Amino acid sequence: ILDHNDPYKVEWTDPNAEGEFVIGQKALNLPLGKHHSFKLFWPIVGGLFNNQDYTSPRVVTADLETIWTKVIQDDLGIERAKFRKHYALLIIPDLFNKVYVVELVGMLLKSMQFKGVMVQQESVCASFGAGVSAACVVDIGAEVTKIACVEDGVCIPNSRAVLKYGGDDITRCFSALVKRTGFPYEELDLTQSYDWKLMEDLKEKWCTMDEADLTVQVYSFFVRKPDHPTQKYQVKVYDEVALSPMCLFFPGVIRRWIEEREADPAFTRLINYEDINDDAPPVGNMNIAAAVAAARAGTPSSTAAGDDNSTNTNNNNNTNNNNNAGTPTGTPAATPAPSAVPPPPPPPPAAPAPAVIPFQMEPLVATTDIPWEVAGTIGKVQFSSLVSLDVVVAQCISNCESEERSKKLYGSIILVGGGGMIKGFDHVLEDRLFQALPATLTTVEKVEVLPSPREMDPRLLVWKGGSVLGKLETAKELWIKPLEWELLGHKILRDRALFVW
């Protein structure tokens, strides 16, 4: 198809016509392999600061400031000089890191110079957007899935969970399944932004979990690549459109893709300092290189990823003096006393771990053969196996410690995020949750996933709730002003936040 006959022709970004940076869709439309000096960065990966491509959190916040400033100027028409006349609402994850939150609030008040900032958790904003007082919020994002229970505008701490899979894994699973059945576009490469966008669009159009739609279908699709004319293909699909979303309930089939995303960080996850350590060094002064060396050498740490109440258990000598990595500085290893008893024979070598066969549906829900260090988090408890989505949701509701409250939450489940927009996904989640009900909850008659109010896009529900929260009369006392932040620092969040800081 020639360009002048293609009504949906993609306007590829010309690197010579751009400035020193490109953001948003323009950055994704930048042709790879061209002779230009641009490099693609994602400041937030997996719901957290990108610690693989950036050297420190300050560099991440600098890129976020650039992106937010450009979007506010271009899409909202507010010049940077007028930021000081506007307020900003910062929506943070339910399982947050205090250090990162402090960095973002400081950036909004000091660098971007907003008139005031309010901080709120995303599950609470989702409940405001849906107009309910109590709900179990299931947020299926691109790379992570988050669950939290909310009651009366407060997130219940023990009900928060984070899982390491999301909508991107559905896309990868769908691509692998259609390629096994003879996908006509043989040059498909998900590392290319245009091919990834193609499979994302096909997933949104074709994937369904409604049994009435599960028939043999013949679809047409178009491939648009830089410097190539648009190509039209036809493909026949059957149950691939329904099996792909099921990977969220059988996460063992997508394990290898999750492992590919695990990489050595360029900077370690920063520790949440408590008030007893208020004199702790700021982010910019930390010895990042020494911390990385200590982490790679196996320095023990008992902090939980994403935990908002974790404390630093490493000795300062482990990070500042890493000459003898893995052994505390100044404490030489003791020499064992001689003994006439011969040492015990070495243990036999462990049997090799069984290989994980892709796409082999597991007979049980929460089974993987090889444990991870952290495969997910529920409250302050970490688990090392990939667990099915419905099992984690049932566990989060059970952690609310009240039968009456659990009954209310089972009847008020909110599905947000783009990963749950597949047709029929809400009904499948309801059925699997009803089967996973604990035996003690005999009063629960039904499990219900609430539809989005006024057919609103579930990807925007959190932002709508944030706007509703910002207009409440009682929210006027929650705004943090620049002078207050300058004088009190992060301590003011204890008084100005609707959650436990």
Describe the structure.
It is built from 16 helices and 14 strands. The chain is α+β, with helices and mostly antiparallel strands and 501 residues long. The strands form 4 sheets. Strands 5, 6, 7, 8, 11, 12, 13 and 14 form an 8-stranded mixed beta sheet that branches. A two-stranded antiparallel sheet has the order 1-2. Helix 2 (57-75) crosses helix 3 (98-111), helix 4 (122-130) crosses helix 14 and helix 5 packs across helix 6. The longest helix has 19 residues, at 57-75. It starts with 24 loop residues before the first helix and ends in a 5-residue tail after the last helix. Residues 273-343 and 351-372 have low confidence and may be disordered.
How would you describe the shape?
globular
Q: How much helix is in the residues?
A: 25-40%
**Strand count, sense and closure of the main sheet?**
8 strands, mixed
Q: Strand percentage, roughly?
A: 5-15%
The assigned structural class equals alpha+beta
Could you name the ranges where pLDDT drops below 50 across 5 or more consecutive residues?
A: 273-343, 351-372
Termini separation comes to: 57 Å
What integer is the average pLDDT? 79
Count up the helices: 16
Total strands: 14
Order of helices and strands: HEEHEHEHEEEEHHEEHHHHEEHHEHEHHH
Rg, alpha carbons: 25 Å
- Oligomeric nature of the chains: single chain
